[in-house]
Automatic annotation (TrEMBL):
This is Large ribosomal subunit protein uL11m. Belongs to the universal ribosomal protein uL11 family. One of its GO terms (cellular component) is large ribosomal subunit. One of its GO terms (biological process) is translation. One of its GO terms (molecular function) is structural constituent of ribosome. SUPFAM superfamilies: Ribosomal L11/L12e N-terminal domain, Ribosomal protein L11, C-terminal domain. It comes from Chlamydomonas schloesseri.
Length: 112
């Protein structure tokens, strides 16, 4: 019951339906500790691009587009999980994730 109350308190500011990752460590004395992680990169990219799913054949078909500005916003969110990683490195990883999903990244939203 305590876990549910803690979880509800920590997730109160998230929108309903937001996919969250939770890391739970249970110890031998039946105590536990848990960390709330940011949503997966693929989920955030699909939300930014307005997609229900990624491309079936990435590289051969285009599922959608997302702007570089959106990727930087997603990188700022993801930086909470890895505070020592530079923002540029996170954006580079997100670019690779977009490529593997069949999502095109454009410099400006008007180019979509």
């Amino acid at each position: 019951m305590a876990f549910c109350k803690e979880f509800n308190a920590k997730t109160a500011n998230y929108k309903e339906g937001t996919l969250l990752r939770v890391k739970v460590r249970v110890f031998s004395d039946k105590s536990y500790e848990w960390d709330l992680k940011t949503p997966p990169s693929t989920w955030l990219i699909k939300k930014a691009a307005g997609l229900a799913r990624a491309a079936d054949r990435p590289g051969h078909e285009l599922a959608g587009t997302v702007s570089l500005k959106h990727l930087y916003e997603i990188a700022r969110v993801k930086q909470r999980d890895t505070p020592n990683l530079p923002l540029q490195s996170i954006v580079t990883a997100l670019l690779s994730t977009c490529r593997s999903m069949g999502v095109r990244v454009v410099a400006r939203p008007e180019e979509a």
